[in-house]
Amino acid sequence: MDGIPILEPKSIMVFGVIHIVFGAIGLLLGLFSVASLIGIPFFLDWLKETVAKEGDAAAEAILPIFDELKTLFSDLAIANWINCLLSLVVSILILVAGIALVKKKRGGVEKSNRYVWCSVGAKIVNLVLFFSIGMAANHKFSEAIQDITRAHSVSAGPGGVTTDQLQDMISMGGGVVGIIFALIYPIVAFVMLNKPAVKGFLSRPST
After folding, report:
1. Residue 86 is part of which domain span?
2. What is the pTM (predicted TM-score) of this model?
3. Do 131 and 139 contact (CB within 8 A), yes or no?
């Protein structure tokens, strides 16, 4: 029996490659997010100065919007930085796990599981930040923009639901659905890579 070769489950290489691709993309997006978080305030200031130089009535009318954008960015700063750092950590974990799986390392499954649990934890944190900070900040920004454009006329929609309430519900639904979709891959990876055949193959002395 010892001489019979153990066939490698295809899921090891498949998820290893996908892990690496997702990890590399995640790192690039994470670094871009860091650059954006640092650069956006300066970009808004420059854009406001550029628009102000136009000097016409239309330009003057939209100048307060840039102040509201900076306020929104400031209100979301803590949540954005937390999400960004968590994203970088998760990206590093999935990249390390992917490399271990492709190389058929003994601890590949454990590293992948570590990524999965950290990813789930990050999504939960994202959801909490969205409900505790994101929705309030976006609602505040929406009201400010409506005031600026003199279009803050709250009309009732179907069933007595106001426009503002409808926007909040759409935002809430979008946030929840986004988190759910983001959880699909980690859950699938956890199920497929924790099968006995995968663990048995990677537990061989040669790995």
Report:
1. 10-202
2. 0.79
3. no
